[in-house]
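Take a record:
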Amino acid sequence: MDVARPASVVRRKKIRRWLFAVGTLVLVVLVTVGLGQLKPAAPTIESGSFWPGQVRRGSMVRQVRGPGTLVPEVIRWIPATTAGTVERIRTLPGTTVQEDTVILELSDQEVQREALDAEYQLREAEADLASVNVRLRNELLQQQSEVADIQAQYQSARITAEANEELSKEGLQSAVTTKISRVEADELANRLRIEQERLKTRGESTEAQLNAERARVAQRRALYDLRRRQAEALHVRAGIAGVLQLVPVEVGQRVTVGANLARVAVPGRLKAELRIPETQARDVEIGLNAVVDTRNGEVAGRVIRVDPAAQNGTVLVDVGFTGPLPRGARPDLSVDGTIELERLANVLYVERPAFGQENSTVSLFKLSGPPTAFEGAERVQVTFGRSSVNTIEVKSGLREGDRVILSDMSAWDGQDRLRIR
């Protein structure tokens, strides 16, 4: 026989069902919300796929580096001083030459003809000078002879007049004769004065005419010297003792005045021409220490010149060597140079990352876990200061001892955390 349950039991049972359903629904909602707030799982990278670096504190040497070449300190380009055709190349590049060593032979019929004409004109002018000199000297001697003759006549007439005056005082000579002799003496004195003036003028005229002829000869000689030098310049000489480096012409080629025919350099006196990026060259100054790698050893040097203009994004910097060059160093040899800008004391720095620029803010992945087994990496914002070739100053975002990923991590730009295995 069935026994009816009390109504309170039935009501409690329904309440328990409703409470269970509500609890289940609330639990599902909470789990759903919780799962929605969870961050996606961090991607995993291999520990050997990146380049780590550690933040340090201490002294940092600021440097800039650039490629370059060795060039001679003393270079002489030999230009063509006259137009001509290359007839013969007598000395080849690499040969040791002296000042009078003939490198090239040029030919030009016009230059040779002008030199010959100038020589004949000089000889003609010199002959004319000699002829004029003889003629003017003869005329001057003739004038001097006339002056001497009149002077003798005057002296004789003066003596005669003085004698007649003495005789006239004693009554032995007539007064008329005495006056006539005095007039003759005075006339000869006047003629002597005039002839002496003519002689002086003749001497000045003679010197003026000779000077004119001498000037003409000097002009002809200067023209002849010029034409002779032009003819001699057809034999192109080194001009300095050194090594012939370049002969950029060929036999049969026609060259114009001013064209470069050869280049001679003094051996042993080399410098390095470095091409420093223009963004790094602003702090480079004359006198800074430098080290040049010749691929056969490193040589110390100093900056001796900084080009005031940039070309193709680089600035040309000349480095003179303070130490001996290694064997095998020669012009046009490719080298690498490092210039020391300054030493920063007690600064926080790290090895330069792939995209770390001076005075910029970048994001880097900071590593976590033991040094021998990294566990993960988290993105942080880092502010950099002054930079060097391999290191860069850390202004903020990292502390001493922190380890960061320095290699290119652009493939993970959308991630803030990484797992490492």
